[in-house]
Design a protein that fits this description.
Largest sheet: 3 strands, antiparallel
Mean pLDDT: 80
Number of domains: 1
Shape: globular
Radius of gyration: 11 Å
Distance between the termini: 26 Å
Structural class: mainly beta
Helix content: under 10%
Oligomer: single chain
Number of strands: 3
Length: 75
């Protein structure tokens, strides 16, 4: 199942989500529509200095922005 993303919802790469998928394993997961991985520099969700192993989403991912997050990436 999928639905249009609402304002403030994020992709696993940190960009603004355009679609949100309902998954059995992870609940709601945002997607920005780009397959490039998106992340440049520190992780939006946990501040790790590089991407996560095997291209998996950050274990700290949340559909909404972290409370202390700055602006979302919109490239």
């Amino acid at each position: 199942m999928q639905r249009p993303a609402e304002s403030g919802e994020l992709c696993t790469c940190g960009r603004k989500a355009v679609v949100v998928f309902q998954t059995e394993a992870h609940g709601e997961v945002g997607w920005c529509g780009r397959a490039d991985g998106g992340r440049r520099g520190r992780c939006t969700f946990c501040s790790a200095p590089a991407g996560h192993r095997d291209g998996l989403a950050c274990p700290s991912y949340s559909l909404g922005p972290p409370a202390d997050a700055g602006p979302t990436m919109d490239l």
